[in-house]
Amino acid sequence: MHPIGRRLFRRPVFFFEDGEVTRETEFEVLLFDLGGVLMDFAGFEELGKLLPGAPHRSEIRDRWIRSKTVQLFERGKITPRHFADGVIEEFQLDLAPKEFLTKFVKWARGPYPGAISLLRSLRSEYRIAALSNSNELHTPLHRRRFEDAIDSFFFSDEIGLVKPDGEIFDFVIHNLAVGPQRIAFFDDTPVNVEAAREAGLEAHRADGLAALEAQLHGLGIIDRNLEGDKQ
Which CATH architecture has domain 43-106? Predict the structure, then answer.
């Protein structure tokens, strides 16, 4: 989906100051998860191909999020080899560690078509930040692919915290130096969205770029010309 026909605008908030009505934008920062929101992360589908019984994507994602091995790797606490050994054992995969890691790196396929253009357009009006559970193998790829369109990156392996723990949202709020109510957050995982709301952020689920654009439109962040989007 290409950002043709979009006009960016900020939804105003009116308040009284010294007897006069002024207005201020509702959001200052747009905070995005990467995989599944702005980027094609094929991990759950690819992992499903390696598992018996063809489990549903949501089941695989839930197991992945709850995995102690995955959490340790995404916190930067274990090496890629220890990560591979742990996942192979935990998920009972018929792969050698090197073979698994080769496949794992390729799970991060890159930005969705139109994602970079959308971010660049938004960047003219908002601060753009990313909050992603990542790891030492994927983080350099993510940063290189998005560095021209995102102002601030918060990768779990670099800060030692993971979603959906509340501490990671507190860390982001502190480092962005803006009130949580001024941050709009978008993630494809329900438990992360709920945790962000508990931290005070305006959080919304967006599973894919089309869903993200619909959320941005609903919040008044973009004015989407539907006919233009179909081109």
Answer: Orthogonal Bundle (1.10)
